[in-house]
Amino acid sequence: MSTQPIPEQAAEPVDFERYGTIYHPRGDALVAAPAGEDAYPLRGRVARGGPFEPDTGRYHLYASLACPYAHRTLIVRKLKGLEGAISVSLLDPIRDGRGWAFREGAGQTLDTAGNGFRFLSQAYQASVPGGHYTGRVSVPVLWDKLTGTIVANYFPTITIDLETQFDEWAGNPQLDLYPEDLRADIDELNDCVGEHVNAGVYHAGFADNQSAYEAGCQEVFESLDWLESRLDRDGPYLFGNRLTEADVRLWVTLVRFDSVYYGHFKVNRRRLVDFPKLWEYARRLYSIPAFAQTTDFDHIKRHYYGTQLHINPAGIVPVGPELDWRL
């Protein structure tokens, strides 16, 4: 069981010279999970009758405004009106080899869950026997304050649990982002978007040879063309007039596309603004407060350009682009 709250503590400043980056750590920085090892081994679910029962005030999100996968959870939390039921800490967008850290600043916080963690890796170590964790230290994390352990770091299920298990305490319980009659279709579309758009930009951006890069670009733009046609036919959302989990998952990549992926990852055949339906769709979502108020372009750009030094060695963060997100 959890103990008395520990005073909030800040991590030491970022130090690339001493600790390297998360992609090339140095010194006593934690090494990432070996190839082939499950990067998301913590896959608990919130459900009645299980070890993690739905409740208000029991769960805490460790998230980042910079990371698209964590951004999803912040959007869903706000869409459903769960701010009073599920607390949150926001991590520093800049990571050295020690990974995600708690530091004070605009759009980021210390560990407000009462654990006194300075680095997110400490939450992972506290959640496995002997404190020996070898998987990926990633966000989002759903933390159980009652038992003092991580429920899940498996991002595909965290938003679904937020959408389906907390209506009793939600400000907007009538909003069904994962309706039963569409679940099979949503899951199928999420699998496609997840592999070819959400991860597709990384296939191109992290490619280490020309053919892999071109293949990554190809899958992204073929998928965007298909989504453009789908919205033209079935919009305004991916499932007609119904806002769903699928829209949240796609949008976090679209909102980063022109600011980061087009330049930093060289996914630059076309910009998002060059897709009329996708650009209109992205701006429509941005007009919803839960999307706009959880979006921080400063965090997004500093995270990618300032952390992925194997792609951008000088760490220079671009001043643009200037985009008008008004619908």
Automatic annotation (TrEMBL):
Keywords attached to this Swiss-Prot or TrEMBL record, sorted alphabetically, are: Transferase
Q: Which residues bind glutathione?
A: 100, 136-139
Q: What GO MF annotations does this protein's record show? A: glutathione transferase activity
Coiled-coil regions listed: none
Q: Which PROSITE patterns match?
A: GST_CTER
Marked site: Lowers pKa of active site Cys: 261, 304
Stored InterPro entries: Glutathione-S-Trfase_C-like, Glutathione-S-Trfase_C_sf, Glutathione_S-Trfase, Glutathione_S-Trfase_N, GST_Omega-like_C, GST_Omega/GSH, Thioredoxin-like_sf
Question: How is this protein named in the record?
Answer: Putative glutathione S-transferase
What CDD domains does this protein map onto? GST_C_Omega_like
GO CC, any one term: cytoplasm
Residues of the active site are: 67 (nucleophile), 202 (proton donor/acceptor)
Location of the GST C-terminal domain = 179-307
